[in-house]
Amino acid sequence: MSRRSSPAPLDDGDLLEEILLRLPPKPSSLRRASIVCRRWRGILADRRFIRRFRKHHRKPPLLGYFDRKYEGADFTAMSGFTANMTSIPRLCHLNLVDCRHGVALFLDHALCEILVWNPIAGVRRHVAFPPWLNNRCDCVVETSAVLCSASDDLPVHGDCHLSAFKLVLVGEYPNQAKAFTCLYESKSDTWRKVITTAARYAVYVNRPNVLVGNTLCWLLYSADLLQFDFGNQKFVVIEKPADAYAHVNC
Hints:
This is F-box domain-containing protein. By secondary structure, the chain is of the alpha+beta class. Helices cover about 15% and strands about 35% of the residues. Strand 4 and strand 5 form a beta hairpin. The protein is built from 4 helices and 15 strands. The chain has 2 domains: about 50 residues, no CATH class; about 140 residues, Methylamine Dehydrogenase, Chain H (7 Propeller), CATH 2.130.10.10.
């Protein structure tokens, strides 16, 4: 009686997935593995596998960093990663305001638009400021933030092609002691209605925003916090304790 031979390791779907799960978390790893064969590509493209891959590796590698200048920014690559900076026209005139989920965000005040750039995929999107801001002299756009639309389905670095993201625009009415915000959703290519709140001080733009759950936070020059809950569309200023000492360096 002949003995039934056991399948080769790479013929076992569960075992193959465990092997692929341990590929290094570099932008090129999954892409190179996906061209081996159709079967491998099917596993690597599955959202369940992508979520497991991200969870397994936890923190993605540092591919580089931006050095923000008075005007524009320089990008320094690390870990052998290269980015085509020439694909970003007028880079020296752009204001870098945010980096999240492998995406960089720039404000272009001259063209009244936001540039969303994925340096890994080499993809960029230009989003015009909300129409109600056109020809307005009583308000100032200060900063912006970028978010992936569904955090549970966030792709591995380099897999996002800017198909679904959100932008949060923040500014102020200097003569009215008010701050404003507006949410953009790429799926519908629309800006939601503007939301305002009382704020005596401007956003301290030299400090990055902080994302806590569904809430974005910005530091104000008063050392208070400007908070926007994009889930509930709640925009408020959280004042620091009266007896707290806080100093914001200009």
